[in-house]
Fold this protein.
Amino acid sequence: MEVKIFNTAEEIAAACAEIFAEQLIKKPDSVLGLATGASPVKTYNELIKKCKNGEISFSQVKTFNLDEYCDLPRDDKNSYYTFMHENLFNYVDIKEENVHILDGNAADADKEAADFDAAIDEAGGIDIQLLGIGTNGHIGFNEPSDSFSDGTFKVKLTDSTIKSNSIYFENDSMPRFALTMGINSIMKAKKIVLIATGEAKADAIKATVDGEVTPICPASVLKNHSDAILLIDKEAAKLL
Ligand code: F6R
């Protein structure tokens, strides 16, 4: 696992967008694993710029998002479906049929999860996966646990995640469950790029980089991946 430390979130976004651009130039029909949350927003802005200036195109790209809340309408302002369209898809030349976002309202969550994993396999697997990291070390919504998860599944969110993400929700309306790609689905990606900024992520980054591989810090599993890179700022790196 490679770790690169930067001064600012802008520098991280530029470096991350460059990695994704190289991938798209090398393989225009790449399969991208994408993340939501605050961390990737600046990277998506950079990718939009690169698409608008003709450096890259998403016209043959397929995307699979890491996760989606359960029990939230797809067009809710806080759904990850809405997030991805407002922060990337509406501004690039991607075909809507190539966008894959889990349906958190599916009547049969297990079938939705299995179909999602099958669609990733059918697309040829994820070429490059973008990740953020929770303050508790989660990736996707793989929360600290006794064992590493396998494929996509329905998860109960932890109090720590509910606390971190409830800033986006009014009153107590933050969903308590989500569908998420599992650790094994994430680890099957050919390349993984994790971005983290700010002091709040320092403990999780310390456990990921310097700790043992344990499902108590799900991101620590990235040490077992042959092509994983962490792009982090000085604040997130302050305990290393
Ligand atoms: C989002 C996701 C989460 C976030 C993590 C960090 O799709 O899977 O694991 O990456 O919670 O969120 P931010 O970037 O908002 O700090």
